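ok new one. same drill as before - structure tokens go in, u give me an amino acid for every spot. 123 of them this time. try not to just spam alanines like last time pls lmao
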């Protein structure tokens, strides 16, 4: 109990002194993805170079992004087609993920293996 109270007092003292803890790196990077786009980054934790699309792309290799994504985020807007199907191969072949609007992936996906995506009505 005493340790919890000391932690609360310390946090209150820092807040009163104007010391703020920085937002997480992921939150900051996700904010870099424009509204209405599906974004990918070439490093984990939504870092490194970023690419965003507002529409379908059957061949990420044309954009220099084929087999390059390490993290991704669907920042789509509410619409009929607001979820994103992500494919391992060009021309929407070999679906691996379906990303609901607002979802983001950094772990549990096949890093550097995606080559196309398309917006869809539902996952």
């Amino acid at each position: 109990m005493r340790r919890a109270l000391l932690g609360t007092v310390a946090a209150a003292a820092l807040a009163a002194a104007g010391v703020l803890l920085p937002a997480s790196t992921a939150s900051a990077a996700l904010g870099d993805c424009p509204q209405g786009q599906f974004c990918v980054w070439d490093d984990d934790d939504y870092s490194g170079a970023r690419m965003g699309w507002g529409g379908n792309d059957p061949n990420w290799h044309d954009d220099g992004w084929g087999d390059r994504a390490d993290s991704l985020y669907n920042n789509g807007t509410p619409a009929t087609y607001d979820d994103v199907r992500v494919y391992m191969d060009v021309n929407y072949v070999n679906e691996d993920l379906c990303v609901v609007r607002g979802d983001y992936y950094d772990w549990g996906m096949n890093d550097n293996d995606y080559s196309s995506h398309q917006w869809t009505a539902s996952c």
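The two ends are 46 Å apart (CA to CA). and btw The mean pLDDT is 82.
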